[in-house]
Here is the input.
Amino acid sequence: MRTMSRMISSSDKKPMPEELVRGAHERLVRELISLESFVTLCYVRLDLKSQSIRLVDCGHTKTIHYHSSTRKCTFLQGYNMPLGFTEQDVYKPVNAKIETGDMLFFYSDGVTEARNKAGEFFGEDHLVECILANVHLDDPGEIINNVRQTVEKFSQSDTFADDLTCVAVMIFDMSKLEFIDSSGCGVILSCLRKINSKDGDIKLFGLTKPVRTLFELIRMHRIFDIFNTKEEAVKAHQL
Here is the structure.
């Protein structure tokens, strides 16, 4: 992560995901080979303007893409081996389109490889079923909590042989939101609190006049950083 951050901050033009992964590879590969170890990695860049993602996958678990238009899930999987397998690797990106309401779900193999008493794996199919059953919640934190509870129920244990890590990214377009009620404000505030607890932050931009007026009425503009454009919001994140 430090290598990628330095590459981004030191470049006039934002490096492509495959360039960032190549930099991490060059920094780590010899040490990993000497230790006879390896690291899986998935680097994703979202471009909301073009409604697309660019993904470099190095032997990681398949990213699950929930499509709001069809209410179905597909898998995104790249071509590269984990870092540490070989010094020679050409990193190739995978490109996909995204839409408002879509979700990207990332997870460690501790989720799909959790076993029940019969020795059966939880597996990708169960995970997709769980996501489809909970995506209506529109709250990434709640979706992740329900996935964990489902895995625990399947394995009849709250401890696992491997780490159980999940990241859910939902695509919202506030510029098309003409109305929001107290429940909607509560969901957004809940997301902010959960992200803040992980040292993250949320920047809002492109709010319609009715939504911005409501935010100011209930003083939420004192909690959220609100910007007029995506460029202003991104710049604020980078400061």
Summary: The chain has a mean pLDDT of 86. Residues 7 and 13 are 10 Å apart (CA to CA). The chain has two domains: 2-173, 174-239. The radius of gyration is 20 Å.
